[in-house]
Amino acid sequence: MDGSLPQAPSLDFTEEELHRYSRHILLGEVGAIGQARLREARVLVVGAGGLGSPLAMYLAAAGIGTIGLVDHDTLELSNLQRQVAHATDRVGRPKVESMAGTLRALNPLTTVEPYAVRLTEETARDLIPRYDIVCDGTDNFPTRFLLGDACHRLGRPLVSAAVLRFEGQLSTFKSHLGAPHPCHRCLHPEPPPEGLVPSCGEAGVLGAVTGVMGTLQATEVLKEVLGIGQSLSGRLLLWDALDTRFRTIRLRRDPACKLCGAGEA
Ligand SMILES: [Zn+2]
From the CA of 21, how far away is ligand 1's center (Å)? Predict the structure, then answer.
C-alpha cells in the first residue's frame, strides 16, 4: 500500500498449519505460496447474516489471516432459519460477537475483528482501507450502494452477493482498476425506489439459497486473493434454485456511468 514492491509471503508454516491446510496445499493452484497469501490477506465481511455465515466460516476455515465483521444488529430467533454461524442460545446478543465466537472456534489461527457498527459513509471510510478485499452480504439497497461507491473510491475490490426468495446473484467489482472493469452503478445506476423491490423480511428466502450464494461468494474471494481462475469482474452470475439453473451475463463498463465513467461526480 505504501508504494514499495510487494514482498513474497513468508512460507514459514508450523506443523499445525501444514496439517490443517494440507488439502489446500495439495492443490497445484494453491500450494504453500497460495496458503501463505491467504494467511496474509485481510478480508472485510459486511453483514453477519445469511450470506455472511457461510462466507465468513469458509474464509476462516481456509486460513484467511484477518477477517473483519461489520453488523450492528442483535441476533433474533427468525435469523436462525438461514444464519447458520449463530446459535439459539445467542439470541439477543450482538451478531458480530456471536459470529466471531464461531469463527474463532473453527480456526483459532484466524484473527477476527468484530465491529458492531452501522455502515455509514464515515465508518466505511474508516474500515475499508484497513482491508484488502470487501464482501457485501447486506440486505438493503442504501447500504449496498454506499458500500459499492466506497469500495470504488477507496480502491478495494468488492465481491457482492444477493438473495431473494429462491434466487441469488453474485458479481465482483474492480472498477477502481479502470476499464474494462464495470462498477455496481454500471449495472444499476440508482437504487430502486423504496418499497419497489421487497426485502427477504417482506418476501422471504429459502435458507439454503443464502448458504449456496454465501459459499459461492467465499469461493470468489479466495480466487481473488490467490489470483487464480477467471475473475467474476464484468460478469453477473444468476441462480434460480427452483429451476436449478445458473446463468452468467456480461456486464459492460458504462462510459457515462456517474461513478466510474465520464459522468463521475
Ligand atoms: Zn460504473
Answer: 38
Q: Measured between alpha carbons, how far is 69 from 186 in angstroms, rounded to an integer?
A: 27
Q: At what angle do helices 207-226 and 52-62 cross, to 10 degrees?
A: 40
More confident of the two residues 249 and 11: 249
CA of 261 to the centre of ligand 1 (A): 6
Condensed to tens digits (0 to 9), the pLDDT of residues 226-265 reads: 999 999 999 999 999 999 999 999 999 999 999 999 765 5
In a domain, 9, yes or no: no
HEC secondary structure over 148-183: HHHHHHHCCCEEEEEEEECEEEEEEECHHHCCCCCC
- pLDDT tens track for 148-169: 999 999 999 999 999 999 999 9
Range of the domain at 83: 37-250
CA of 17 to the centre of ligand 1 (A): 41
How far apart, in whole angstroms, are the C-alpha atoms of residue 98 and residue 1? 32
Q: For residue 34, give every residue at least 6 positions away whose Cβ sits within 8 Å of its Cβ, in sequence order, or none.
A: 24, 27, 226, 228
Q: What is the CATH number of the domain that holds 235?
A: 3.40.50.720
Residue 23 lies in a domain: no
Whether residue 59 is contained in a domain is answered as: yes
- Cell readout for 148 is 459499492
Expressed in angstroms and rounded, the spacing between residue 134 Cα and the centre of ligand 1 is 17
Domain count for the chain, please give it. Answer: 1
Amino acid at 40: E
- Strands 133-136, 158-164: parallel, antiparallel or unpaired by DSSP? parallel
Omega before 180 within 30 of 0, i.e. cis: yes
